[in-house]
């Protein structure tokens, strides 16, 4: 029994930081409208949209129900390449991702702070590309929520 409790404690202590570092931005628009605005903001900023994933549509394709939820995967090689040159393992976290899901009266945009995302890598938290990623994510999600 003691071994099970210790194992559970280790799992929770390892998993908790991943959940604690998410940034949320509220939008009064629907998921689709918010995601459309985010996709437009990303394009206007000169970044590339690699994929837009509709989880609700995927669930419906196997006769399951899911509230509206989408993920936008996007990036800019000018930011991502320096991160990967600093630590190639950054490629596990790039391109960047923003999720949008249903919430009371609208939707919520969710993303991980790049400082936290790269915390276990050999990437300094004050690296210029990390700060630029933080600023870009804040501006893009803010624009999408308006």
Automatic annotation (TrEMBL):
The keyword DNA-binding appears for this protein: no
CDD domains to which the protein is assigned, alphabetical: DUF302 (cd14797)
Keywords of the record: Signal
Signal peptide positions on this chain: 1-20
InterPro entries: DUF302, TT1751-like_sf
Pfam family, one: DUF302
Span of domain DUF302: 53-114
UniProt cross-references to PANTHER family, sorted A to Z: INNER MEMBRANE OR EXPORTED (PTHR38342:SF2), SLR5037 PROTEIN (PTHR38342)
UniProt protein name: Uncharacterized protein (DUF302 family)
The organism of origin for this protein: Litoreibacter meonggei
Classification lineage: Bacteria, Pseudomonadati, Pseudomonadota, Alphaproteobacteria, Rhodobacterales
């Amino acid at each position: 029994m003691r071994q099970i409790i210790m194992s559970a404690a280790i799992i929770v202590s390892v998993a908790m930081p991943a959940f604690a570092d998410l940034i949320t931005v509220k939008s009064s628009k629907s998921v689709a409208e918010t995601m459309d605005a985010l996709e437009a903001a990303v394009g206007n900023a000169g970044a590339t949209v690699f994929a837009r994933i509709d989880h609700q549509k995927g669930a419906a394709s196997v006769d399951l129900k899911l509230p509206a939820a989408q993920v936008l995967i996007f990036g800019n090689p000018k930011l991502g390449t320096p991160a990967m040159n600093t630590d190639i393992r950054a490629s596990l976290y790039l391109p960047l991702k923003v999720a949008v899901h249903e919430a009371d009266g609208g939707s919520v945009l969710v993303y991980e702070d790049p400082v936290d995302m790269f915390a276990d890598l050999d990437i300094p938290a004050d690296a210029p590309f990390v700060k630029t990623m933080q600023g870009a994510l804040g501006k893009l999600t803010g624009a999408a929520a308006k």
